Amino acid sequence: MAVISLVSSKGGVGKTTSAVVLAGEFAAAGRKVVVIDADPNRPLEAWSGLRPLPDLLRVVIDDSAETIIDTIEDARADADFVIVDLEGTATDRIGFAVARSDLVLIPLQSSVLDAAEAAKSVKLVRQMWKVANREIPYRVFFSRVPPAIRERTARDIERQFSGSAVPALPVSLTDRAAYRTLFSLGGTLHNLENADVSGLENARENAREFTQAVINSLRGEAA
Length: 223
What we know:
With about 220 residues, this protein is of the alpha/beta class. It has helices at about 15-30, 45-50, 70-80, 90-100, 110-130, 150-165, 175-185, 200-220; strands at about 1-5, 35-40, 55-60, 80-85, 105-110, 140-145, 175. It is globular, with a radius of gyration of 16 Å.
């Protein structure tokens, strides 16, 4: 019954990858998951067609501002978790989805451009507080982070967000070959085998830690 929206005004920052990782972990934990593909490019529709999904996971397509609210509410009534993967441009549909969310996740990579775009998304979420008549929890997080590197730019951005009271997830989504393989073979991390890709166990561990951080945020624990 929790709605999680992935928002960024910049494309290519890892929204869809994050959605697939979260959905796979929730389903593996025995939770019913609906993923809403609200991107006109329909990346999740393509992913879901590569391999049969777990019984507890289904993908719904909705790229219309006129129907997104109803789609989210219908999914909420039918699932434990609803994950909304939104397009990388500013549209009314994004605002509507944010207003219906229990948590908004804002991914970024370690660049000044990404930080600026993430700040725009934070501003949008805060603006939607008035529309929803409530504070909407949100977290920024780094995606596609090199596993063994903490770049200076990333550290500087973290300090800027901290100084601006912008809450961040304590776990980044690292750059793993297993995540990329999901979009060529389909399924979730739990469908892959060691023969399919290297570093699978490291990817699974990162996915578990990332998902737990998201759950903690839903519970209202401090970032």
